[in-house]
Amino acid sequence: MSKVAIVYWSGTGNTEAMAELVAEGVNGANGEADLIQVSDFSVSDLAAYDAFAFGCPAMGSEELESDEFEPVWDELEPELPGRKVVLFGSYDWADGEWMDLWRERAEAAGITVADTVIAKDYPDGPAAEACRALGAMLA
Ligand SMILES: Cc1cc2nc3c(=O)[nH]c(=O)nc-3n(C[C@H](O)[C@H](O)[C@H](O)COP(=O)(O)O)c2cc1C
């Protein structure tokens, strides 16, 4: 059984809803999911988990949220190569470029990103199903 950390930041709840769907997917596939706000997670927590889903919406101009999420990501990034990692998040007015940039950045740091899921605003329909599938894959 895999223990999965779902670590996220969400301003208006859309990425949080995605995180909850990822957790549903983990638990439905007999894994164990912990939902964790990014400000409550640090490098010392990595060892407790088998796999990681990181969630952050598009903020700034196609950027990660800079006050809380990105500082933690900066610290985690060098420790994530060799671990099972997926990325997810919500966006609105653009086309998901922030996720492409995030994935490129992670891969340049040596992280194997197993998959990414993006949702325009609230994750309904196919996006919700993609979140559950992401969780099931990590479990
Ligand atoms: C300050 C700010 C910056 C944003 N920048 C972008 C952006 O660059 N591209 C985009 O597609 N959406 C952008 N958005 C829209 C959010 O990504 C979108 O509302 C998302 O659903 C928020 O997710 P959350 O509910 O998890 O906070 C921005 C929203 C805010 C408040």
Give the class from helix and strand content and strand pairing. alpha/beta
Number of strands: 5
CATH architecture: 3-Layer(aba) Sandwich
By CATH reckoning, the class would read Alpha Beta
**What's the alpha carbon Rg, rounded to whole Å?**
13 Å
- Which fold name is given in CATH as the topology? Rossmann fold
The fourth-level CATH homologous superfamily is Flavodoxin domain
Report the portion of residues in β strands.
15-25%
Straight-line distance between termini: 7 Å
Family: Belongs to the flavodoxin family.
Pfam family, one: Flavodoxin_1
Function: Low-potential electron donor to a number of redox enzymes.
InterPro entries: Flav_short, Flavodoxin, Flavodoxin/NO_synth, Flavodoxin_CS, Flavoprotein-like_sf
What features would you highlight for this structure?
139 residues; alpha/beta; Rossmann fold; five-stranded parallel β-sheet; binds flavin mononucleotide
